[in-house]
Design brief:
The complex is a heterodimer of chains A (about 110) and B (about 110). With about 110 residues, chain A is mainly β. Chain A has strands at about 5, 10-15, 20-25, 30-35, 45-50, 55-60, 60-65, 70-75, 85-90, 100, 105-110. In chain A, the strands form two sheets. In chain A, strands 2, 4, 5, 9, 10 and 11 form a six-stranded mixed β-sheet that branches. Chain A has a five-stranded antiparallel β-sheet with strand order 1-3-8-7-6, with no helix packed on it. With about 110 residues, chain B is an all-beta fold.
Chain lengths: ~110, ~110
């Protein structure tokens, strides 16, 4: 299975600042999904963007998708301490049941 | 509403002992079910997935096995644990292909 690769590996920001992380992939996709994992916990599905969509919003989250560049970005605006977590970009190729996860971006929001 | 239950939350087992982790989904029928493992500080590795009762696909050859005895029950097993089996095990489900996953809260397994 293919997987997305997140960049940067780690990000440290001040509370109230915006956090941006990027994802690159190599194959054609049906959709791309972002997940959050708080330390030692299960993963939470944040947002799904389909291959024919370019931008999607959910609360303080904004996801963009550029299929020509095979890349996506996740923006968290006005970050809070509770946003401290690892964020994973996951691609879903066509005719594939399975999601493959990369190493993720670890975000630390300082109070 | 749909919920996913996974237990136990933590487990410490000696090398060579058997393993059984259970995952159940409520509030839906015929879910796609998945077992993932996460090593410390790493991404998730897909171990098994199932699209129906008795249908198991293995992604990584190892000394683990999975079974789906009922529609909404997914079990991860081992006859003899190895040290390298230590990790964080996550069960997940989705209703349709390509949809987002809902994850369980995970089981932290330490093999000593």
């Amino acid at each position: 299975s293919q997987q997305g690769e997140e960049d940067p590996q780690a990000l440290s920001i001040q509370e109230g600042e915006n956090a941006t992380m990027n994802c690159s992939y190599k194959t054609s996709i049906n959709n791309l999904q972002w997940y959050r994992q708080n330390s030692g916990r299960g993963l939470v599905h944040l947002i799904l963007i389909r291959s024919n969509e370019r931008e999607k919003h959910s609360g303080r989250l904004r996801v963009t998708l550029d299929t020509s560049k095979k890349s996506s970005s996740l923006l968290i605006t006005a970050s809070r301490a509770a946003d401290t977590a690892s964020y994973f970009c996951v691609i879903f190729a066509f005719n594939d049941y399975k999601l493959s996860f990369g190493a993720g971006t670890t975000v630390t929001v300082r109070a | 509403s749909q919920t996913i239950h996974q237990w136990p939350a933590t487990l410490v087992q000696p090398v060579g002992s058997p393993l059984s982790l259970e995952c159940t989904v409520e509030g839906t029928s015929n879910p796609n079910l998945y077992w993932y493992r996460q090593a410390a500080g790493r991404g998730l590795q897909l171990l098994f997935y199932s699209v129906g009762i008795g249908q198991i696909s293995s992604e990584v050859p190892q000394n683990l096995s999975a079974s789906r005895p009922q529609d909404r029950q997914f079990i991860l097993s081992s006859k003899k644990l190895l040290l390298s089996d230590s990790g964080f095990y996550l069960c997940a489900w989705n209703r349709y292909q390509n949809y987002g996953y809902t994850f369980g809260s995970g089981t932290r397994l330490t093999v000593v």
